[in-house]
Amino acid sequence: MARTTTIELHKEEMKFSAGHFTIFSATHRENLHGHNFTVYVALTGEVSEDGLLADYGPLKQSVITRCKAWNETFFLPGRSRHLRLEKDAQGNYKAYFNGEELHFLARDVTVLPAANVTLEELARVFGEELVGDGAAMARDRITHLLVKCASGPGQWATWEWGQRG
Ligand SMILES: Nc1nc2c(c(=O)[nH]1)N=C([C@H](O)[C@H](O)COP(=O)(O)OP(=O)(O)OP(=O)(O)O)CN2
């Protein structure tokens, strides 16, 4: 009888400090601010006759690497209907929102493939970049992956890949 397990990873290093603003409409956004985000990942799959799903080490390192890449940056949404981004000759950014023009140095910015910089979009982008083409999931016989991104204690959004159970 096949037995599945879920391994949950929520290590101290699975965190990043970053700035953003949420856009609520074509005319309403938050002021720039930041959070100490944390990430939780749960991987589910069948336990082999050797008593393990797979070595979760590589996936854990991928999560920590992504958290480090997202630490001390300012997120801008690259797919917002309400915010237009332009890069100047120096590679720096101008963001246009509701008649405002915001300027950012390239070194300070991470443009996300997201419609908004929200918990739900951060969880999705994080998860999609972990899953990639699915090869690591197949290698590790992972059938379901859940990513939670929290903006602080008690507040998070989730993203899921694969089939539960
Ligand atoms: N659906 C969503 N709604 C909102 C999001 C989001 O990501 N998805 N985010 C925000 C703001 O970014 C805001 O900063 C987060 O809300 P807030 O509760 O103010 O954040 P704090 O971490 O400061 O929590 P406190 O309760 O104020 O301590 C709003 N809406």
Short description:
This is 6-carboxy-5,6,7,8-tetrahydropterin synthase. InterPro entries: 6-PTP_synth/QueD (IPR007115), 6-PTP_synth/QueD_sf (IPR038418). With about 160 residues, the chain is of the alpha+beta class.
Q: Your description of this structure?
A:
The protein is 19% helix and 42% strand. With 165 residues, the protein is an alpha+beta fold. It has one domain (4-162): Tetrahydropterin Synthase, Chain A, CATH 3.30.479. The strands form 2 sheets. Strands 1, 2, 3, 4, 8, 9 and 10 form a 7-stranded mixed sheet that branches. The protein has a 3-stranded antiparallel sheet with strand order 5-6-7, with no helix packed on it. A hairpin with a 5-residue loop joins strand 5 and strand 6. The radius of gyration is 18 Å and the shape is elongated. It binds ligand LPXRUNBV. The ligand Nc1nc2c(c(=O)[nH]1)N=C([C@H](O)[C@H](O)COP(=O)(O)OP(=O)(O)OP(=O)(O)O)CN2 is lined by residues 22, 30, 33, 35, 118-120, 151-152, 155.
Q: What is the helix fraction of residues, given as a range?
A: 10-25%
Major sheet attributes: 7 strands, mixed
The pLDDT mean sits at: 96
Judged by helices, strands and strand pairing, the structural class is: alpha+beta
* Broad CATH class: Alpha Beta
Uncertain runs: none
Tally of extended strands?
Answer: 10
Q: Which of globular, elongated, flat, extended, rod-shaped describes the shape?
A: elongated
User: How many DSSP helices?
Assistant: 3
Q: CATH-wise, what's the superfamily?
A: 6-pyruvoyl tetrahydropterin synthase/QueD
- Radius of gyration (CA) equals 18 Å
Order of helices and strands: EEEHEEEEEHHEE
Distance N to C terminus: 14 Å
By CATH, the topology is Tetrahydropterin Synthase, Chain A
CATH architecture: 2-Layer Sandwich
Which small-molecule species are bound to the chains here? ligand LPXRUNBV
Provide the number of structural domains.
1
Report the portion of residues in β strands.
35-45%
